[in-house]
Design goal:
The chain is of the alpha/beta class. Helices cover 27% and strands 23% of the residues. It has a single domain, classed as Ribonuclease Z/Hydroxyacylglutathione hydrolase-like (Metallo-beta-lactamase, Chain A). The strands form two sheets. A seven-stranded mixed beta sheet has the order 1-2-3-4-5-6-7. A five-stranded mixed beta sheet has the order 8-9-10-11-12, with no helix packed on it. The longest helix has 13 residues. The N and C termini lie far apart (38 Å).
Length: 242
Amino acid sequence: MIEKVIEGVYWIAGKDKFLPDSHVYLIGLPERKDYSLVDCGLMEMGSYKIGEIESIGIRPEHIKRIILTHTHLDHIGCLPEIMEAIPGIQVWVHEEEGRYLERGDDRVIWGNKMFESMIRSQITIPERYFDLKPHRKLIDGDILDLGGVRVKVIHIPGHSIGSIGLLNEEHRFFISGDTIYADGAIGRYDLFSADPSQLRRSLELIATLDIDCLLPCHNRVVKSGAGPMIKKTVENWRSLLS
């Protein structure tokens, strides 16, 4: 399912399989023919995501980059499929997790050994399948022009060391990855490179942003009025994260 959020931003709902599949966001104004994907999803979901994009008349070759909110398997799993389907597409990721990818350290992908064993028992994944050199390593404060839609990179570690959010000040939308969801939920903080104290600080930072539309990578999307819900979520979790 693909759904328009605002002009220049589409939401492609994740299609859960053996794990929750990440939502994908497509960003870019039609006249620019310069689109970005935010995250891509689980293995074997590449054709689904590309098919949804084609269903609204957008040609895959106009997708120029994939921006990863972080590199957990449910967000990066079908990256090799999409890179094969769209030659020349770039991969942008926060510098902290970009370093892991460059040296072939896949702990930031699997999260823990239990997940890795579970997934490998259900699907064949070649060794070093996710080894790649990112085309751009993002840092906090970067301003990105994504096909006419400007976003600011917000580094929000805690769920993972290189988690980022993307903030658009004009329309007040925030793509939050797995750091904060709707309805009081937050990302887990017991995986490799996670840190509850960092997560608390990241949540407190998010609460200070002027957000109306919350676009997380799982669960429901909040198209308007997200600010009070975010503040309540952060307040409820503050004392539980140390």
